Structure formats: structure tokens, C-alpha cells
Fold each of these.
Amino acid sequence: MPELGSISAFWDAAADSFDEEADHGLRDPGVRAAWADRLRSWMPAAPARILDLGCGTGSVSLLLAEHGHLLVGVDLSARMIEVAQGKMRRHRRQVMLLVGDAGDPPPQAGNSFDVVLTRHLIWTLPDPQTALRRWTSLLRPGGRLILIEGRWGTVDDDMPYTPGATPLPWSGGVTAEHLSEAVRPLVRDLRTEPLDDPVLWGHPIDDERYALIADI
């Protein structure tokens, strides 16, 4: 798809400075510890097979690998994956990292995962409903879908992702209520957990941020 090329280029350009945001790079010890605690509370016992979609520079994949889990990361941006690979080498962690469409992960990513995880990904997708069905199909029976999402108050819903691209259905994010409605028919049960603690983000927030945790 032509639009995927422009989207990939957008994130390639952002990759080298991406980790400067506190919740992206997880460099601040307090932010890192806060995410470690949240992730630990949502994950099954290690070692679990986890698919981290839209993994970016690999900060969350690295953190989960350090917890003893088995990670596969997928991102559309080749430059993001390059940065993530460097991070894994420096920390001596074995994580499979693939360039591909996180909305429709490549076959080499595998299937029958214990957890499919995304963080601030779904707003970027041209067809989030299809992506949700695809993600749940990659989980083993009893597996868990974890979506860390939000509804941003500063984004124009009609703004295209990149110049000339088609506007996205959930540009500006998606509320917990709306995302729960979309996920509920695909899973056995679900819950949402607010993520309004400023320690998670490195600063106070005034928009809706949450995790949706669903079991199939």
C-alpha cells in the first residue's frame, strides 16, 4: 500500500529522537520502574511468549525480556527496528525483531502467543477492527490481549496521518468505552485500568490514558 510507505517514512524520521520522551525511552529510573510494575501486574508468569506490536525502539520489549519473557517485536519502521536491535545488543537480550505491518503481522512472527501487546498503536491503523480480529487470532486459547491506549485532547480527528494520506478512523486516539465495545465480541472477558499516574509519563497528563486487558 502506498500509504504504508509514507507512514514508515514518518516513523523512520522520528526514530533517532524517539527515546527522548520519558515513556518512550524509559531512561528515567522512576518511569521505568512504574512501567515495570504495571507490566508485571498484567503479564502471566515468565517465560511467556509475547508479541509486541508497534514495538518502536524496543523499550517495552527489552523490559519484558529482562523479566524473563520471550519476545517478538514488529514495527513498520525499519529505522525503529534498527534502533531496537542496537538496544538489545547493548543489553545482551535475544529478541526477534521484524519489520512489518503491526496491523497484520508477518507470518514469520509466529502465532499461539500468550500475550499480544500494543502501546499507542491502534490510533495509527487504517482498519483497527480488522487488526483487532487478526491480533486475537494470534493468541493461544486462554491468551491475553493488552492494549495501552488513550484519547488525546490535542489531535484533530480529521487530520491525515501524513500529507495526502486518508484520515484514520481513530486519529486522535480512542476512548476506553469505544475500544471496549470493539473488543468485547472477540474475547471472553475484559477490563480497563486507568493510566493517569504522571510517573508513568514523566509529567502530568490531562487526557484519557488506560490499559485494556482482555482474555480469550
Amino acid sequence: MVSTKAPEDAYTAESFLPDHGGLPALRRAAAECRGCPLHRDATQTVFGVGDRNARVMLVGEQPGDQEDRQGKPFVGPAGRLLDRALQEAGLDPAKAYVTNAVKHFKFTQAEPGKRRIHKAPTLREMTACGPWLAAELAVVEPELIVLLGASAGKALLGSSFRVGEVRGTLLEREIQGRPEKLVATVHPSSVLRAQDDADREAAYAGLVSDLKVAARALS
């Protein structure tokens, strides 16, 4: 009997990955991913961008509204803030590889035409998208991974990850059978959500401080 189960019901992107071809092949294949239901409402897949030989990989949570529309990660307000923080910390944004744990925008919307509100991906959705992130890591082989927020940390280190417990410290963990060095910090969007200017300045200073740990680890 032929199965009528939709690919997204399996909650894994594994069958969509190409056998070879590097980042260009991965990007093309990811555009057709139906590994979980998030593709249904998103405008497009937002795959990672950057230098194939980047020493540092920045991993965020998922695309936001502008990323979903433009098809590139971190091109919205949070991305601009991240670029500024990286430069202040001594890291060149142009030499990093930037991606997200989840490649489709998850959101809520009161009605068509209204603003689309970010909604955090579930662990099941992050796990479904995990093969793409694993493939990016295998190709780029960065010297250091910077985890931007709790979801990125959970995607790579498991559901018990808490960014507040380890942020700003150099971690060494085995991921996909390979020893990795990681630094965790907050997602730049959390800086933008600070209630007032004083809180925003403090949150931004904390982000820069964490990124300086990453810069020292690469020096």
C-alpha cells in the first residue's frame, strides 16, 4: 500500500539533503524543503550565508519578518545591531558564516494584512530542521560557533540549555561527532525589546562583552 503521509508529517529534513555539492547544493535543496509544516506559511526558505571558510559561525533562532521577505538571515533590525556589536567586539561580520537553527519564519497573524508576529519554534521543529544546520557545520567546519539565544543553544546542545547559565564563557562540546568550541550570548532581538534606553544600553553592552570572548578565542 502506498503511503499518503505528507513529508512534513515526518518532521525531518533528512530526505531533502543532497548527497554532495557543498553549500550551493545545500542552499538549492533547502529551498524545496518540506520537512515540517513551517514551510506552508513562510514566504521562502532562509538558508545561511557567508564565507565557506569562515572561522566563526553565528547561529540564530529563525528568520524574522524581513529575513522571510528578503531570503537572507539577519537583514532586519536585529541583524544591523548584530553587525555593529560584532565590529565593536573585533569580529568582521563579512568574514562570518551566519545562519539559523530553523530555516522558515514561524509567526502568528491576527488577520491577513496585519503585522506578522514572531513565534518561537518548538523543539520538534528545531529537530526537524537540524539536518540542515548539521550539514552547514560539516561543510564550513568553523573554529568557533556563536550561539545567539536560547533556541540556537537548544538546537545544538539539547533542551536543557540555558543561555543565562553559560553566556560569555568558552564552551567545548562534541556536536555531530566533532569537537566544537562555542560561545553563547543573547539574541540581538532581545536587546531591541528592552523596555527603556538604559536597559537597552546595558543589554547591548552585555552582547558586545560576550562577543569579545568569541573574538579572543579566535585570536
Amino acid sequence: MSKDGSSRQEVDLYYHRGQERLIRIGSAQDLEKRSVVLNSRLRNVPGTELGDTARYQYTYELTAEERSQRTLAEHMVRLVDQTSHQKTWVGRYDWMILSAPIRTLIGPKTDIPSGVNVDRANAAIQRWYGEYSLPADVYAVPKGTDLEPLARQNQLDEKSNVFLKNGYIVVNFNMESLRKGNTEVPHLQYIHAPLMNQWQMDGFNKTPTDSHGRTWPLKDGDIVFYHADQSSRNDFQSQVPH
């Protein structure tokens, strides 16, 4: 998207990995695996969420044989102190799947009608933890640009004119829910559902105004904006105090 928000175009994104140069995100060469740790230090997941999740798992998701091997208290300690600190693979740069290991249960604990299972009520509302970022150094070109002949003519570097820098990289999410990991037939669809658009129902603002009074035309699913001419490496600098 241009810096004033007046125009946008689809792009291909590239990054470097070690000695491998200009890997296109989503290509066969893009093998970067991304992981999430549910109970990482800065995520601040409440202990009650982890405990409630562990109790539900023990009661409804473990087999009888698994339950016979440890008590509920032992299972809760294991989830809080061990399992929740393990990495969960969530996908790559062009797709992401949030699965049960990074989900917690946050349903109501009080004023539950008689006859309603307390654990089932707790599981009725869930919080899914995920995180997303582009590579620290990412290069955008108009979608479909073939870099190979350009690289043969001139050596490509971050200053090459083919890379788009005057604007923002907008990451658009197409959110779906899946059953049994079936990505071919989504159970629910946030944008392209047959009867409604969840972005519209949630009140997504398609024309936000910034601090300078400029209006930004957005599309359903626009989530993250990156400066096309900057890198997250610019956030960190080393200094010698003497």
C-alpha cells in the first residue's frame, strides 16, 4: 500500500536465509518453520486458564489408560510446568494453524444454570494464542515478478530499484476454523462464509483515520502493516559506553 493509502497492489515477498538468497515466501524453497510457546514469559497466560485447561483435558480428552498413569494434580503440574513451555509448530510465513496445545479454556465460572455441566461451560469459550511476523529483512516486488533474469543482468541487493520501498506491506488474514485438521473443507469461514461476513458483524472499521487526519481504505482481513523500507533490526542498536 502506498504511504498515503491511495493505492495498493499484490506483492511477492522474499527473504534471505544464511547463504541462500532471495527465497520467495510460499515457494518450495520456503522451508522456515514457525513455532509458538504457549506459556512464554512475556505472554502472561493466567495460571487459572492453564489449570482449567489441564483439568478439562484430564477429564475429557485423556484415555482411561492415560488417567491411570497419573493423578489430576500431577497432570495439572505437568501442563503448567512442562507441556505449556514446549514449542508448538504453527506453520510457515504464508499460512498458520493454531492447534489445541496453544488453546486455553476461559468459560464462565459462576452463575451457571442448574443442569449445565461446569466443565462444559468452561470449555464453551476458548482463547487461542498465536503470533505472527515477517522476516526481519523482507523484500517486496510486484506479484509475479521474475527475479532470475533481473539478477543475471545486475546484481540484486536491498538497494535495487525492483524492490518496493515507498509504502507499507499489508498482511491480510483469511481466517478459518477446521475440524480434524481438514484444510480442504473449512468448518467456519470469517470472510467468505455463504451467509455472512464476520468482519462486518464484528464492526471492522474499513476507513480508519490516522493522527494526521488521513483516511486509510482497508479490506476485510487487513491485520498487520509493515514499513516496506524498514527492518525490525532497526529497533535494536548496540553502543559502547567508553
